[in-house]
Specification:
The structure holds 2 protein chains of 2 kinds.
Chain A lengths: L16 E12 L6 E12 L3 E5 L6 H8 L7 E6 L2 E2 L5 H11 E5 L10 H10 L5 H14 L15 H13 L5 E5 L7 H18 L2 E5 L3 H4 L4 E6 L2 E7 L8
Parallel strand pairs in A: 3-8, 3-9, 6-7, 7-8
Antiparallel strand pairs in A: 1-2, 1-4, 4-5, 9-10
Helix pairs in contact in A: 3-4, 3-5, 4-5, 5-6
Chain B lengths: L1 H16 L1 H7 L1 H30 L4 E6 L6 H10 L3 E16 L2 E10 L3 H4 L4 E4 L4 H6 L3 E4 L1 H8 L8 E4 L2 E9 L14 E5 H9 L6 E6 L5 H15 L10 E4 L1 H44 L1 H9 L4 H37 L8 H27 L3 H6 L2
The chains are: A alpha/beta, B alpha+beta.
The complex binds adenosine-5'-triphosphate and magnesium ion.
Chain lengths: 249, 393
């Protein structure tokens, strides 16, 4: 993965493949209650891509995100991340994949309450065995990147929704992940805050060549992505360049 | 490493966020630790008191006295003749008698003794003198009185040189026994009169038998052997058949100390049981609060798992919390126990001595309680499904 990457403006398909899903299926429940959430997903994500997932409620977007993030396991099919067949990994190996390669942003922010912004950002570094001094350095940098330098000592309860999501982004960034998984990151924010968050994501994608996979219901947000994948009933229904309406940033 | 430190910090923060709640949670541990440490410390102090008392009587002195039989002058002669490795033999005979001095009188114990009595009992007079060899031998009409007797018969007047009547037999007071009163005893060692053995036998009791023979052995190492020899000799002298019970008893202070420390051991065992039950209750308290904490912090656990915490790391985090909580209780208990032991020790005249061993045991045991009762909640936390945990409200 150390090979030099082409300039972001070069054609995506010329870049290395980061993720490849083949005929991925996932069912929940047993017997009568059994529900086939994913019915055979084929999906390829290239390194440095910013991809939006859209689709009606219950179409399997979160399910596929959870499987990609190794928070859940697939039933059949295959999931290749770089050169690893993820479905063959153990629970702890998948935890380590999350620790070293993935960053998460959730709709509900999911910050530790009663804990300062800085401590929240430093949390993933703790599990990497990084020294306190370097943690401080890295968290300072990450908070600066999301524009929250002045808020390092505030707890989530003292921050607005947008600020909380920025802390969450800083927490995801601080480990310099290869893949950022964001499930409806702007779902709890107003339009203005949403656009600010999207601009931040675009910036990260451009400047750090961070691969981003984002679920959203809002075409305006999907428009920030390089391409949009539409899910319907556990299947990929369509792909567009840029947002739903086809325009690109 | 970073995880260990951060878990410890987090645990400490959680405990002190609600110190009262934490203290109540570990109340069982506090009570258990206080109970065990206080009782063991005080028990040790009083054991020390009693052992010292026994030791002051002389560790290499055997006491022989009749139970169903009597000790005769023949027994005494046989012991003198046959038993080697003996330093001193103190034959003693006692009788109760009415004593009169001027217009005062009292009833007290008259103890007939020989010169050996003084070294065997580490006896001393506070004023006057003791008997000479010759006075003992001839059975002189002299006596040494105890403090209690002195008070009853002479009040504040100087008694030495005065005559007293012991069952009408006149004796001159030549000395006053140095007070041997030890705290709390029921037996008053100062309420007695010492006279030469021969004097007692001739003029007061009118018989030759001995109440007690005390034997000082050359070295405390031999006491058990010599006790066996004495038993053999006295059984023969008393013509006891095989299978017949001894009609005398030989008291070895070592046995006394041993039996005493055995009693205090079983007492300690009893205390340890009570303490363990309290600690068990404390442990259940910890388990309860930890289960609640895991439930309360489900989302936090989900976040940690999502960012790549291993199950073992989550387990460790909650285990550390439980251990810290238990140690918090243990520490409070230790501090309270120190004050309590000092206070009770002061009131009961038991010397307080900090016992590092029992404190260390209590501390480690608290940690163990934390591990044992924290394991289940910690495992529950570690087994949570990250997606479910993240969705938890
Ligand atoms: N743990 C689960 N147990 C049972 N069914 C589940 C579970 N998780 C998801 N499902 C079902 O799988 C289907 C897909 O769910 P998923 O969360 O992936 O939808 P989604 O596309 O993210 O929808 P939304 O836009 O509402 O978030 C839904 O019908 C849902 O009810
Ligand atoms: Mg969803």
């Amino acid at each position: 993965m150390t090979q030099p990457l082409p300039h972001p403006s070069s054609k995506i398909q010329d870049r290395p493949i980061l993720i490849e899903l083949k005929r991925l299926t996932k069912a929940y429940g047993q017997g009568q209650a059994r529900f086939q959430a994913l019915k055979g997903i084929d999906l390829t994500i290239y390194k440095g891509e910013f991809v939006a997932l859209m689709g009606p409620s219950g179409s399997g977007k979160s399910t596929v995100m959870n499987i990609l993030g190794c928070l859940d396991t697939l039933d059949t099919g295959s999931y290749q991340f770089r050169d690893v067949q993820v479905q063959t990994l153990s629970y702890d190996e998948r935890s380590l994949l999350r620790r070293y390669y993935f960053g998460f942003i959730f709709q509900g922010f999911n910050l530790l309450a009663r804990t300062s912004a800085r401590e929240n950002v430093e949390l993933p570094l703790l599990y990497r065995g990084i020294t306190a001094k370097q943690r401080h350095l890295a968290s300072t940098q990450a908070l600066e990147q999301v524009g929250l330098s002045k808020w390092a000592h505030h707890t989530p309860a003292e921050l607005s929704g947008g600020q909380q999501q920025r802390v969450a982004i800083a927490r995801a960034l601080v480990t310099k992940p290869q893949l950022l998984l964001a499930d409806e990151p702007t779902g709890n924010l107003d339009t203005e805050r949403s656009h600010e968050i999207m601009q931040l994501l675009v910036e990260l994608n451009r400047q750090q060549d961070l691969t981003i996979l984002m679920v959203t219901h809002e075409p305006d947000m999907a428009a920030y992505a390089h391409r949009t994948i539409r899910f319907v009933d556990g299947l990929v229904a369509a792909e567009h360049k840029g947002g739903e309406h086809g325009h690109s940033h | 490493m970073g995880i260990l430190i951060s878990s410890s910090l987090l645990a400490t923060r959680e405990i002190f966020r609600q110190p009262l709640r934490s203290a109540l949670t570990v109340l069982g541990i506090i009570i258990g630790v206080v109970a065990v440490i206080t009782m063991v410390t005080l028990g040790k102090g009083s054991t020390q008191n009693i052992t010292n008392e026994i030791k002051s009587l002389g560790l290499n002195t055997l006491e022989i006295y009749g139970t169903t039989g009597v000790l005769t002058p023949t027994d005494l002669d046989l012991i003198r003749e046959k038993i080697r490795r003996i330093k001193l033999i103190s034959p003693e005979s006692s009788a109760n008698a009415k004593v009169i001095a001027g217009r005062f009188n009292t009833k007290t114990n008259i103890l007939g003794i020989t010169t050996a009595f003084f070294p065997v009992s580490s006896f001393a007079v506070s004023s006057g003198r003791t008997f000479t060899e010759r006075e003992i031998y001839t059975g002189a009409p002299l006596c040494i009185i105890g403090k209690t007797v002195q008070k009853k018969l002479f009040q504040a007047n100087p008694p030495i040189g005065n005559l007293i009547r012991i069952d009408k037999f006149p004796c001159q007071v030549i000395g006053i026994q140095k007070s041997k009163k030890v705290g709390g005893g029921m037996f008053d060692a100062d309420d007695q009169i010492l006279i030469p053995l021969k004097t007692l036998q001739r003029h007061i009791s009118g018989q030759q038998n001995l109440t007690q023979i005390r034997v000082t052995v050359k070295s405390a190492r031999y006491t058990a052997e010599i006790k066996a020899e004495l038993t053999q000799l006295l059984r023969e002298s008393h013509k006891l058949k095989q299978g017949e019970q001894d009609d005398f008893y030989i008291n070895d202070p070592h046995e006394l100390i041993n039996s005493f420390s055995k009693t205090s051991q079983s007492l300690n065992l009893f205390l340890a049981t009570i303490g363990s039950i309290s600690l068990l209750v404390g442990g259940i308290g910890i388990m309860n609060i930890m289960l609640a904490s895991v439930h309360e912090r489900t989302r936090e656990i989900g976040i940690r798992l999502a960012i790549g915490a291993l199950r073992n790391e989550v387990l460790l985090q909650f285990l550390i919390e439980a251990i810290f909580l238990a140690l918090f209780g243990g520490l409070i208990g230790i501090i309270l126990a120190i004050f309590l032991s000092m206070g009770i020790g002061h009131v009961m005249a038991i010397p307080y001595q900090f016992d590092p061993k029992i404190n260390l045991i209590a501390f480690n045991f608290s940690a163990l309680i934390g591990v044992v009762f924290g394991y289940l909640p910690a495992r529950k936390a570690a087994q949570l499904d990250p997606i479910q945990a993240l969705r938890h409200e």
